[in-house]
Amino acid sequence: MIGIIDYEAGNIRSVENALKRLGADYVLSHDTDILSDCDRLLLPGVGEARWAMSELGKKDLIGFIRGTQKPLLGICLGMQLLCSWSEEGDVDCLGIFGNKVRHFRSVLSVNPGLKIPQMGWNNISSLKTDLFEGVPDGAFMYFVHSYFADISEDTVSVTEYGIPFSSALRRGNFMGCQFHPEKSGDAGERILANFLKI
Amino acid sequence: MLTKRIIPCLDIKDGRTVKGINFLELKSVGDPVEMAAAYSGQGADELVFLDISATIEGRKAFSELVERIALRINIPFTVGGGISTVDDAAVLLRAGADKVSINSAAVRNPFLISDIASRFGAQCVVVAIDAKNVDGVWKVTTHGGSRFSDLELFSWARRAESLGAGEILFTSMDHDGTCSGYACAEYSRLSQMLGIPVIASGGAGNADHIMEVLSPSGGNADAALAASIFHYGDVRIPDLKRKLEGCGIPIRM
Description:
The complex is a heterodimer. Chain A is of the alpha/beta class. Chain A has one domain (2-195): Rossmann fold, CATH 3.40.50.880. Chain A has helices spanning 13-21, 32-36, 49-58, 62-67, 77-81, 185-195, and strands at 2-5, 26-29, 40-43, 72-75, 85-86, 91-92, 100-103, 118-123, 140-145, 147-149, 155-160, 164-171, 174-177. A seven-stranded mixed beta sheet of chain A has the order 2-1-3-4-13-12-11. Chain A starts with a strand and ends with a helix. Chain B is of the alpha/beta class. Chain B has one domain (5-246): Aldolase class I (TIM Barrel), CATH 3.20.20. In chain B, strands 1-3-4-5-6-9-10-11 form an eight-stranded parallel barrel, surrounded by seven helices. In chain B, helix 3 links the parallel strand 4 and strand 5 (99-102). In chain B, helix 1 packs parallel to helix 2 (56-72). Chain A binds chain B through residues 10-11, 13-14, 17-18, 20-21, 46-47, 115-123, 140, 142-144, 160-161, 180, 182-186, 188-189, and chain B through 1-5, 40, 45, 70-71, 74-76, 93-96, 98, 120-124, 166-167, 194-197, 222-223, 252-253.
């Protein structure tokens, strides 16, 4: 059973649909008793970082997420929330990864023509960990984001948009991807299937 | 590297596609879900579904269709046609659409853009603009090109961006249906003045037209949308993408 951590984080329909396509059972909940019984956790997210952290706090989910030993995958904003800090609302995040999250506008001085958000298909490369088993280096994933995590020792996938940034992170049981595997065709679905085996 | 996008567009009436697609050899011609899956399998980067139903029943069938599409395909898709309130957008986004495209209603009430963007995020708001060149001025039209508004293309595009549009989809009514190529000069200007992606629509007759509108020395658009050339099999997406890649245009293979 997969627990989708529910903090009213915008449109999670596409994540649910992807799990249905993979034939995986899931439950959507913010109840830590229910989430504790799950084998794996997903932290989705479309929204704003400060607001999202405040929702996680209100639902007493911050300590639970930090303490879980289960494989946990953060998607898009969900990955950014696992970092240490976000410029979006200048907010301290969960701090699983040491990375800082910044707006692409910080890159505009060297790349004045950069369109923000990054919207569309971009490559992932320098792939590490079994999350990417069977996914070729340079595979295309679908991105929609205005903020990015810098590169650190936890970086397991690199993408370039004006600057190289972390398109996936991993530290132990915690994983995160900036792109939307649930919207990234068959290669994206493979990543979700891999997560279900970790 | 971020790639340019190829976007087939399907017109939907009462939950069914209006034009059949001959070349895909589908079991159920006219079923948008099968067509969507076929295009996705061919390498389409995104899909657009435009609801042209005129009845309440037709619109309900469309939102049910959106649910079935979302369950089946694993690439992003945009829905549009007749969205005039935040609630209209909410129904379709909850059904599983990734983005909504708004057109006439945004001309009538520009704050619809900011209302949807603030509730669901700018990334899901595509502002579609239909315009006609009248004595050198690109006048914005509504209701499928049948009525002129007071707006001018470039200033309206800029305003839409400032109100929170995530993308601009401009259709030149002078080029639409002609199969003679896109309005490249206008896309180039839009692309340069806007900080958000520009989708080109209207005029595609062959693969060269798409190459021209995506090329940095041509229209420099971020995405090219087309309908009939894909539906009738004049241009096959895998062939088109190989051609674009061969000419140095970044594309997802």
